Amino acid sequence: MSGPRVNSFFLGDSSGVNFSIILSPRDAETGKLQLANCSGSKRAGDWNLDVTPGVEASKVTVSLTRTLELCLPNATECCPSPLCRVETLQVLACRGSVMLTQLLIQAEIFANSSFRGNVSENATIIPNQAFKPLGSCPCNLTAGACDVRCCCDLECTPDLQQLFSGSCFPGVFGGDVNPAYDQLCSSQTMEYTPEWFPFLCVQSSLDNTPFLGYFYHGSISTPKVPSFKIPLQTSPGRPFTGYREGDPIITEEDDYFTVPQQSLSGQCVGNAPVAYLHNFDVKCLTSLESYKEGLPHDVRINSGTADFIQQNVVYRLITDRGKFITESENLLPAEVLCQNVTFAEHYKFIWKDKNIEQLNVTVFRGSLCDGEILTQRFTVEFLSLNSTNGEEPFENPGYQVGEPVRAANLNASDPLGSLNIWQPAGRGLCASATYRPVLFGVDSYSGCILEVDINEDCSFLRGNVTEKLNALIQATHIGKRDNSSYRDLNDWVEIIRLDPFSSNVSTGGLKGICPDIPANLNIHIISAKVGAVQGIPQQQILAVQISYSTVLWQFQCGLGCKNTLSFLPITASVQFIEVPAQPPLPVTRYQKLYAEFDCNRNEVCWPQLLYPLTRFYTGEPYSQSLAKGLFLAFLILLAAIMSNPWFSKLWNR
């Protein structure tokens, strides 16, 4: 101990245990401590022993009762020298005359003194960590005193080191800053020794140890655990510059603003961040047992200029639960436990340029009971501040992959149109199938099954199938861009419709056979990349064509032909074709004649025959490749000379 007080603990039941403290002088001949007995007391010289009993452990405190001031002239009860006390103490725990345990304390206490002298202004010279360890004794943590178990501490006297010589700190912390590594020839360890050891071992001084790298450039090491916090650019002179398309929206606490969304596997993720200018409409299944509340609606979001916006929340009550409850178990009324939960949340972000101006939230609440399955709905919509009627929800110059294709019916008073494909449900019948919008850049294929009677009129069947296919396309024009305006006709491309082919083939009154049924709808959308905004490619639709493929429908007779109904599958496919924004340059006559020398079009590249001898070859030094090339040329020349007939005659002579 180096202070006037030290604490320790006695583990176990302390009832009936007597604690005592004694001074342990050393034997003058052997230098060993004298044996102690249980006849001591709780006071020995200037030392007191205090014991605080506990349930499973008792606190033992040893304290010094005298002052630690340096002696003035003609003063007593003080320290005559800076090293005030050097004593060895023993604390004993006895039950009767039987000693249970003992604690050996080496006290080396200095007198209290204030610094009197000149302060040096010389800075501490830190050695280069690449060639010399920063600290030769890392366990030396206390200045001017001996650290227990630190055998490399030069302030520990031999008497103190004898107390803990068998339990020194091992490894680098204990002072072994240059340990012998496994590849060293003098190393005796065989734990990580390579199989070529010791035939190819390393003979080097320990001053050139690879462990020096552990202390080199430690301040710039990359952390292994990534942070999910997003630091805002709020440093002086560098304010938050706003959002770009696709950036996550940030809250006041520098966290993501999250709304439940669907993952790639189709499951809902509750803590998915909302991306700027990305709309979505998702549905998530949950039960009362697995229900969890989302982000609180009192959380403020960053507007993009380091200002914070409060959510404008409107709560509504759900009266018709049939649209949300999809499954219910038969439980007794007395066993049903109900709770008021969120059925749907609709977020509307009002934005301008790179900033969010307003956030309106509509929350629909209702009662969910135990045993019921709830279909929650979450929608996020970004509305431009310049659009007052909401008919232009985006101001992006072009389409992004995954966004719905904008459609319009410019020949009607209401220009809002739709371009959809089927989303079958249940048995896959067309009567129960719903629609889903066509997404830009996503090739799709869907269909449904139409029930057809054996006595069905072929003309009526063609008209019925055509009507169901045309119901998918309630539009005359498709928007070139995602911000196409209904008031500008140049922002739209007209849908090119190719009518189905009809051969007017007569079936001769046969039942159950109808030719030229337009059962397949083909939608071809031609697009091109027309530029980029803030590094994000923007794509534009150039043309849209709709065509039909006809099939021969024939009634399929089952066992015994007792059923008079058959099935006709009708399909709709969407294909996106990307073309260059500008037509490519025509092939010149030179390119046509010398196409065989083009290394990108032929497997054999004659211009690169001597490629290893050029400066572009970096597989080996240029001098080596040149020497090998000259040696190869010498061998070829030698072979050519030796194959000549006159060389054979000269050799025979």
TrEMBL record:
Asked if the keyword Transmembrane belongs to this entry, the reply reads: yes
User: Which GO biological process annotations does it have?
Assistant: cilium assembly; protein localization to ciliary transition zone; smoothened signaling pathway
The Tectonic-1-3 domain, residue ranges = 241-384, 398-579
What's a Pfam family this protein contains? DUF1619_N
Q: Which InterPro entries match?
A: TCTN1-3, TCTN1-3_dom, TCTN1-3_N
Q: Which UniProt keywords apply?
A: Cilium biogenesis/degradation, Glycoprotein, Membrane, Signal, Transmembrane, Transmembrane helix
Residue ranges annotated as transmembrane are 629-647
Could you name the Gene Ontology cellular component terms for this entry?
MKS complex
Highest taxon of the source? Eukaryota
Question: Tectonic-1-3 N-terminal domain spans which residues?
Answer: 115-221
Keyword Magnesium assigned: no
Question: What family is this?
Answer: Belongs to the tectonic family.
Q: How does it assemble?
A: Part of the tectonic-like complex (also named B9 complex).
Protein name as catalogued:
TECT2 protein
